[in-house]
Amino acid sequence: MSLLAIEGLTLTTGGRELVSNLSLSIAPGARLGLIGESGSGKSLTALAAIGLLPPDIHAEGSVLLDGRQVIGARENDLIPIRGAAAATVFQEPLTALDPLMKIGRQVAEPLIRRYRREGRDIDRRGIAREVRDLLERVSLPDIERIVNAYPYEISGGQRQRVAIAMALACRPKLLIADEPTTALDVTTQAEILELLSKLVDENGMALLFISHDLPVVARVAEEVAVLRQGELVEQGPVKSVFRAPAHDYTRMLVAAAAAFDRALEPAQ
Amino acid sequence: MTVFTEPQVDPARRTRRSLTLGIGLLLVGLHLAVALLTLIWTPYDPAGMAGGRLEAPSWTHWAGTDRLGRDLFTQIMIGSRIALIVGAGAVAIAAAIGVTLGVLAAFATRYLDDALTATFDILIAFPTLLLAMLVVAATGNASLLSAILALGIAISAIVARLARILAKRVLAMDYITAARTAGSSWPSIVFRHLLPNIWPTLSVNFALQFGLAVIAEASLSYLGLGAPPPNASWGRLLQEAQGTVYTAPFGAVAPGIALVSLVIGMNLLADGLRDVGDPTRRRTR
After folding, report:
1. For chain A, which has fewer Cβ within 10 Å, the N-terminal or C-terminal residue?
2. What is the ipTM of this complex?
3. Residue A13 belongs to domain spanning
């Protein structure tokens, strides 16, 4: 059974179709890359998957997350599914963390919620130990300092690692990464991608990776789905889609990426 | 991996900032001390004759006497107490109603949000004076409580509108969505993330509104819509001094100075609070 099964999802606002009749599924432990230009509905699809659509967007179709229907579900029924079933990492490291909360406490929050969910005792020292452990797993240096730092005191790449640590703290079955590396420089981007790949493997999580960047998706995903103006134009294994794109739009994307690479080469 | 260096604040600016907070605290603290003092001691009996009528300021009567021969300085001291009670009471009511409704509007569906916003706008357009008259009419007589209630309701609309905007801005942040995906409930988001993040801006506004409430209370008392006569509100002192302003101008000057010093103190305190609430600035101290 799929962990996330989206069937005929249509999102509309004020009579305008943002996503039309989209279907895709992610098996437990699988990695799907969702590709498309800005405004193609990638992020909305991700929000719909966890039932966090803005109130003025109307959803039709079916979204089964870990076997439970998300579309039309009540907020109170969704809260316990979230976290256990899915957690997210977002694009902008500046707004991904609460600016007024120290890093340590921030990572402790989802951790404490998971402990409650699992019915475990919450003792402060155990939590503090696991917070450090989580920060270590996302390869953050100087953990003693970072635990007591405010978000503005650490770099963008470090903030993104903290955001990943927070998502890991939930131990979700599905990790949704919405352009998690777009705002970072190339070196940091590579490090974060490698880290994400490793962590997803280690924890047996499924990954929904949203990006507009083909090489980035090729690096972390096994399958890819291409969205264009709210419509799914192509879906399949990353290698075959990129090697032999079936749809014109995908062909154009691949050609553009290749042209960009060629343009860079003489400079190297 | 680079670590952000702490923002460098030029030292002259830093001193100026702490000076702002210092003067604000001093002025407000002075009024607070005087207000507390009046509970146990005043130079003269506030209601009784203390000297001749309309005496000019002297060593025995620092601010002179009024036309009934009461010591003005004593009255001004009691005025501090009334001003602080009205300011604190009005801001407390405004904070309770305003923040609750503002945050509610930020969370609400569009129709409820529109309805609440329209209510705030109408309430803001309502003259405070008219509101105070309505409250007086409803409670039966003009009292300290009716003044506090009227000002509290009037300010709550301003606070609610601000709280709504601030809350909406915070709710749009990724860390809120991330917390929600991670399974945070509404109360947890409101109390852990939302309120702490809107508090710095709100507290500055509270301090400003406090100053405005003090001025508004003086106007209400001036018009007889505030605390009734045994309570020496600055507004009432000004009103009483009006009749004799050509022969005894000191009667208006002294309450005026008291009023202005408290309002300036509150405004400077508001400026200082702005820096205290922001961790990026707190560290640079």
Report:
1. C
2. 0.78
3. 4-267
